[in-house]
Amino acid sequence: MSAVRAAREPLLWLAMTLTAATAVAADTPQSWLDRMNAALTTRNYDGVFSHWQSGRVETLRIVHRVVDGAVTERLESLDGSGRQLVSNGSEMTCYLPDQRTVLVEKAPRSLMPAELPKFSDATADFYQLDSLGTMRQMGQKAQVISVTPRDGYRYGYRLWIQRSTGMPLKTELLDTAGNVIEQVVFSSLSMRHHIADDELKPLLVTTGFNWLRDDGAPAVTVEGMGAWTNTPLPPGFHLVAQTAQMMPGVTEPVTHLVFSDGIATVSVFIQTQTIRSSPNQVRPGMAQVGSSSAFTSVQSGHKFVALGEVPPATVRFIIDALLHQSAGQALGR
Amino acid sequence: MTADASDLSLVQRVQHGDRGAFDVLVLKYQHKVVKLVMRYVRNPAEAEDIAQDAFIKAYRALPQFRGDSAFYTWLYRIAINTAKNAVVARDRNPVDFDLDMTNNEESYEMQGRLKDSETPEALVLTDEIRTTVNAAIANLPDDLRTAIVLRELEGLSYEEIAATMDCPVGTVRSRIFRAREAIDSRLREVFEGGLGRAEEIG
Amino acid sequence: MSNEELDSQLSAMFDDELPATECELLARRLARDEQLRGRWGRYAAIGACIRGEHGVRLSAPLASKVSAALTQEAAARAAPATDRRKPGITWVTSLAGLATAAAVAAIAILWIRAQGPVLVAQSQSGPVPNLAAQTKMAPSTPVTATPPGAEQSAGQVAAALTRPRPSREPDSYVVPLAVPQGPALVPPTELANYIVAHSVYSGPLMRRNALSALVGEDAAAPQVITLQPIDATVVTGK
Predict the structure, then answer these.
(1) The CATH classification of domain A29-212, taken from the options 2.50.20.10, 3.40.1190.10, 3.40.50.2300, 3.40.50.10770
(2) Total Cβ atoms within 10 A of residue C80
(3) 3-state DSSP call for residue C225?
(4) A130 — phi, psi (to 5°)?
(5) Does ipTM surpass 0.95 in this model?
(6) First CA to last CA across chain A, in angstroms?
(7) By the 8 A CB rule, do C149 and B66 touch?
(8) Which region, left, alpha or beta, applies to residue A8 given φ > 0 means left and ψ of -120 to 50 means alpha?
(9) What are the DSSP calls for C76-132, one per residue?
(10) Are strands A210-214 and A101-106 parallel, antiparallel or unpaired?
(11) Closest CA to A280 of B109, B58, C190
């Protein structure tokens, strides 16, 4: 470590412990997170990564292009199935060669990342950000950042952020016990000046495939959404978005609430409970989908589903709070 | 000549219930699959077990195979997936994979580093086979040797070999066939006893 | 056909240089003829030797192990005669069924309108068609252009598309393939739809992870875990 570095380190620690400090020095963990989010959303890149989760590993290729703020992305499974997902602002197309099918979804609203979870001063109350120094990852210099939750309502992260580009070369999701429950490692990554249209097209011949298309319903507004803003939530979480959309199997719009603590997000879907049940539908109770937790409950003819990259306790808390609140007020249609 | 017709015709037979046809595919690709798996595990016995799992998995998934990709490409992916999952299950932790995602299988050369895990008998057999084959190849007329080496080592198609050797495609086919015949008859000479076992498959 | 001609065909087929029709005939023979198979196995061994690959053996233990394992499985299941599958799909193990169910889940990751999917077209040629230019076709007239061996599944697909379905049912069963007759493990499609909707808001990192999980080969069924009472005091304050 150079002398300059050593001199700077204590200052960094000081800056972090003074959580009131809003001026972000260039090397703070928070600035690295910002840089990472910016790189992921504004740069062109293509790479291959392995995705480890629930004891299984998958290898995927990603091609990501941003032109005038419009994002197009192709995600391709490189193992067995050869499935690919191509998404842009208005459409998501899923190619399933193993089923000889292509599904196209036209969205009434953008399917690209919306508001990013924003790390604020308040967020620091619930997560501790540390820089663990620089390490070599894939032969590249990477800044290692750890995001450690201060309570059991959220998960932790470890991020190996490439110093030159801000791209996350390796990321880990950690549960409340500190175990790694999800890991993504890039085995190759190129930042690109230009990505041709062809690279965002699926690499397969779709002759003889079945094409299924859904035109998407127009965006709907639903009355009474403001009712949810006062719901008691796990510490640090607040409502950041609320929309409504049509979903299959339900004739009325489904309310979609998004809660965040600045790093983690939880979605809650509220719909009119259909009378006939089918194996398609989520049943009440807790479920684990990869590294996400999902909790479902039914009340007064409505079904509530909370889903997010958080521990089970969090989704449970949110649903219980919503149920309590909705029991106390009339739910208008 | 439809690409992949050979594999596809065998796959079709398997899909129609002919399991013997699957044995034929295993025979063709077992070395390649083991070599592929060895990128993830160094122990050859373990690699063979994983390769066996991969083939079994492929067999079970074969109803869903529709020929959209080459059969070997499909099998390749299954093998990699099986290998990675086996490693992960064994280690119980996520590991950094040094993945070589190009199709360049030849990049990983394991030869000569595995002596400790092989049984002496298997080693001797392998060495003897290799010696026999290499000697037989050395004894081939130049045109036969060139043809089979271009095919097996460089992976060139008959057309490409024909262009390289400046002869008709039919001649290429004939040369490769005759090269194989010569090597094979030498193998049968040397391994008269052992070959009896080779023919009892399935 | 002389023996030599046959062996020459074998050599060509091994190199994937035999015309399709001859392949089909030879494939039939190969599956039955031990001598021919032995030669084929030795061709593979020769190639492996030339490339200096590890573990070249003439006795092909791997092939016999695979064969033995599959035979064992088949014997263990010992399906009764009435369980005969349709021709073309004569064996569906429970694991294959699981894989299919997972694939069905993956199919349904995009939401499809309650009225049912609209079959836009069977693409006849390589490039992705411009969907905007397509006119909607009635589901009852699917155009099929399928390669040999896939008639079965293509027929199933066409049948599934034209089957009348209840209007409120999310359309996730449109393209089942070789769905086993036993209890099918179909994961909640609804949850998959929610995952996609949620991914828009979960930040670029987590969004990528969520979509990767859905695109992956083993897009696994969500595991339902038993509801346990959560002690709120335990989780706060570390």
Answers:
(1) 2.50.20.10
(2) 6
(3) strand
(4) -130, 150
(5) no
(6) 63
(7) yes
(8) alpha
(9) HH---GGGPPPTT-----HHHHHHHHHHHHHHTTS---TT--EEEEE--SSSPP-GG
(10) parallel
(11) C190
**Token pair 């992260």 is at which residue?**
A157
Give me the pLDDT at residue C35, please: 85
- Counted across chains A and C, CB pairs separated by less than 8 A come out at 298
Averaged pLDDT for residues C107-126: 32
CA C115 to chain CA centroid, Å, is 27
Fold category of A217-331 in CATH: Phosphorylase Kinase; domain 1 (3.30.200)
Q: Helix/strand/coil (H, E, C) string of chain B?
A: CCCCHHHHHHHHHHHCCCHHHHHHHHHHHHHHHHHHHCCCCCCHHHHHHHHHHHHHHHHHHHHHCCCCCCHHHHHHHHHHHHHHHHHHHHHCCCCCCCCCCCCCHHHCCCCCCCHHHCCHHHHHHHHHHHHHHHHHHHCCCHHHHHHHHHHHCCCCCHHHHHHHHCCCHHHHHHHHHHHHHHHHHHHHHHCHHHHHHHCCCC
Measured CA to CA, the distance from residue B71 to residue C196 in angstroms comes to: 32
Q: Are A225 and A211 in contact (CB under 8 A)?
A: no
Give the three-class secondary structure for C37.
helix
Chains in contact with B, where contact requires at least 3 CB pairs less than 8 Å apart: A, C
Three-state DSSP class for residue C198: helix
Closest CA to A308 of A234, A246, A225: A234
User: In this structure, what are the phi and psi dihedrals at residue C58, rounded to the nearest 5 degrees?
Assistant: -90, -20
Instruction: Give the helix/strand (H/E) hosting C212.
Output: helix C203-215
* Percent of chain A clearing pLDDT 90 (strictly above): 15
Q: Identify the residue whose tokens are 């992960």.
A: B88
Segments making up each domain of chain A, as ranges: 29-212, 217-331
pLDDT tens profile A187-239: 888 888 888 888 888 877 777 777 766 655 555 555 555 666 678 899 989 88
Tell me how far apart the alpha carbons of residues C171 and C213 are, in angstroms, rounded to a whole number. 21
> By C-alpha distance, which of B59, A100, B63 is closest to C86?
B63
Alpha-carbon distances of B176 from B6, B140, B143, C38, C117, rounded to whole Å: 17, 11, 9, 18, 53
Question: Residue C151 in contact with residue C67, Cβ under 8 Å?
Answer: no
Assess whether pLDDT exceeds 90 at residue A268.
yes
State which H helix or E strand residue A210 sits in: strand A210-214
d(CA B78, CA B46): 17
Mean pLDDT, residues C114-133 taken together: 31
What pLDDT sits at residue A264? 92
Per the CB < 8 Å rule, is C37 touching B23?
Answer: yes
Give the span between the Cα atoms of B12 and B18, in whole angstroms.
Answer: 9
Interface of A with C in 72-111 (CB under 8 A): 75-77, 79-81, 83-85, 92, 94, 96, 98-101, 103-105, 110-111
DSSP conformation class of A248: T
| Chain B contact set for A56 (CB, 8 A) | 85, 88
Q: From the CA of B3, how many Å to the nearest CA of chain A? A: 15
Q: Can you name the residues that pair with A162 across neighbouring β-strands?
A: A142
Distance to chain B for A80, nearest Cα, Å: 5
* Residue located via tokens 């061996």: C149
Residue type at position A290:
G
